[in-house]
Each structure stands twice: as structure tokens, then as C-alpha cells.
Amino acid sequence: MTVTVIGAGLAGCECALALAKKGIKVKLYEMKPEKYSPAHKLSTFAELVCSNSLRGAGFENAPGLLKEEMRRLGSVVCESADTHKVPAGGALAVDREKFSQYITDKIKENENIEIIYGEVDKIPEDGYTVIATGPLTSDKLSEEIRKLIGEDYLHFFDAAAPVVTYESVDFDSAFMASRYDKGEADYINCPMSKEEYDVFYNELINAECAQLKEFENHKVFEGCMPVEVMAKRGEKTLLFGPLKPVGLKDPRSDKEHYAVVQLRQDNKEKTLYNIVGFQTHLKFNEQKRVFGLIPALKNAEYARYGVMHRNTFLNSPKLLDNSYRLKKNPNIFFAGQITGVEGYVESAASGLAVGIYLSQIIEKGKCDVFSRKTAMGALSRYVSDETVVNFQPMNINFGIIDPLEYRVKGKKEKNTAISMRALEEIDRWKEENKW
Description:
By secondary structure, this protein is of the alpha+beta class. It has helices at 10-21, 62-72, 76-83, 96-109, 139-149, 194-205, 227-231, 284-291, 316-319, 344-364, 375-383, 411-433; strands spanning 2-6, 25-30, 53-56, 85-86, 91-94, 113-117, 129-131, 154-160, 163-165, 175-177, 187-192, 249-250, 255-256, 259-265, 272-275, 302-304, 307-313, 332-334.
């Protein structure tokens, strides 16, 4: 038995390695380096595009729980992230190039995985196929999927934030700190006075955006909204979002500023920093001009400007079951952001789940799907929930995980209790299924 996996992103790599772990042969197709999407730059697999952050690490938040579940199930993404993490306060951030290279090496070293480079323009008719081509699926394969599912995709825009060099930040205007002094002082904070913010704001909302010729509409996912779009919602919107000053005291004066832009470490060498929350599709020269109005960034050198790219996902509640399997064709599975799970961790989790489920189907004809008491199970149940009318991509959150059957006082304590229950479920599942 050989399984075809199309796409060597986070989901495809997790899926391929989960199958290979059970001795199942995999043909892994990847169009890079022969062809690149508008957002991808590295030739390696499992490339992180929008940010280097895999979000919260603690069990009081849902991404932290999901990552721990994945670790216990053998996730290569979590293994690489833990190996190549960089300081980021309470978040798990990684050196992107080393993170990607580590996973690429794991794939190449596995004797059960055959790598085939080049664009796939036909969906195999025989055997099992996992489509994990992500939100930037090529035009040819997109057309094949449209024919397969009998309807159009849904679309929205996804935006990546700029990255600047550490040495170009003006530290006469910036200071190091983490919000509420949580963890080490890992963030570079770039404060603005009200007068400076007003100038910045007016230039931002009037700046020129790049033309979006290749995209079909202007839907924007709330979790990755361009900073200029967010700003146009109101003069103070940014002050409650990425420029929120609350909890960031300047150690030089012990005061809070009117607005603060944060920079997060982007590589292990601490030479590159991501402008947090500044996803954008402004023209490059406009990014340099407008973001240069932030005093600490007046001479910033950009290692990467922000870019806008298409994000494509299925109407999954109509099309997929709770194992990410296509209802109309049980030989085909989807994994990753194309299913409507949102975020790097969620994408990888769906690929890991598909690899586990499909290996069980091949071995014994059926699979034991994770329950909604777990983050893994809650994700797959959400994207397959037929009662969802206006389906939109979803990050993992405690709202889609089954609530506790007893009362716990305090939000943090309640979330931690949900996490402990979930991990017990995962451990039980592993023992019962000999994973």
C-alpha cells in the first residue's frame, strides 16, 4: 500500500511521517523548488511564511494544549519547534530556516517516503490521496479540486508582516520588555506619543496599497487582518490591538506610552525582528515611508516587506467528515489550512490527525477519531460540523472543546483543568490504539 500526499507544508510533512511511522509507503509531492507560490521563498519543506510564532505555550491557552497533544502523538513540527525555539515571552517562536531544514531532513532520511518534485495537476484515481496543498494551492490543482467537489472554494486574504534588522532599530527610542513583565524582556518596544501616533495613523490610512490582480475578492480573515484595514475601522482601533500600550512600562521612565509597536525575535541569532501585528499589503515604498514614522523604525532596514496573498479553503462542513475525509470519495483526505483550520499549529495538527486516521484505516479498516474533549478532536469536529451555516476558518480555542462537567472558579484555572482532562484523553487514546 502506497499513499499519495500532495504538498510538503506543515500538514503534509506531519501526515507523511505519521504514515511512515507505521511502515506505510508514501509518495510525497512538492512543487518547490521548481515552482513557488507568491508567499514562499525557501526551498525546504514546512516553511513558515506569515510569522515565526507558534503562539502560546501554557496550558491555560488552547494553542499550548494543542501543541502538547501533538508532542505526545509524535509531532515532528513540535519536535523541530522545541529544538529551534527563540525567546518570545509566553509564546513559542522559532528560527524559521532551521525549523524548516530540520523537518526537511527528517522527511529525506525516512526510507518509507519517496519525494517527487514538481507541480501536481491531476488527482490520482487509485489508492489513498491526501491533499495538503495549503491556502496557496496552484491554479491547475485548484481547478481539479473544483471539479472533484463540484463547487467553488471560499476565499479570503492573508497577510504577512515585515521583518526588520536588529541593528537598524533606534534604541534611543526603543526599549526591551515583555507585557506585564511576563517571561524575559524578549520584545523590542517602539513607543509613540499621541502626536507621533496621530501623524502615523493619518499616513497609514491614506497610504497606497499594492494592486491585488490575482485575487478574486477582498474578504479578510479577522485573525490576520492588514494593519491598514484595521486602522480604517477607527482612530483608536490600533490602540486596542497591535499598538496596545497596556502592561508595557518603559524601564527608563517607569511610565506607559500612548502607543507601542512591538518587534518579536525572528531568528536564533537575534538579527531579525518581526513587526508584530503589522500584516500589510501596502506598496513596499509606502511601508518604508509610513512605518518609518515610528521613531524607533525611522532608519529601519527591511529584510522582508509585508506581502498579501490569497488564502483558499473548502466549505468543509459540507464536504468532509470528522476524519478530514471527503464524504463523496472515501479515498481522498484533505489536511492543513485548505480544510479551514487556521494557523500553523492547527494546520500541522490536522495533517498529523489525517496520518494517524489513515494509517488506522489501512491497518484495520476503521479509525478511532479523537473526542471533542481534546483540541485535536475539537478541530476536526468543527470543520465537519454540518450545523455551521457561514463557515469561516477557525483557530483552536476552548470554545470548541467540550466544557467540563463540573464548575471551576477562574478562567485560567478552568482552562488548565480542560487541558489536563484533554491530555488524559490523549494518553488513554494512545494506550488503546498502541500509538
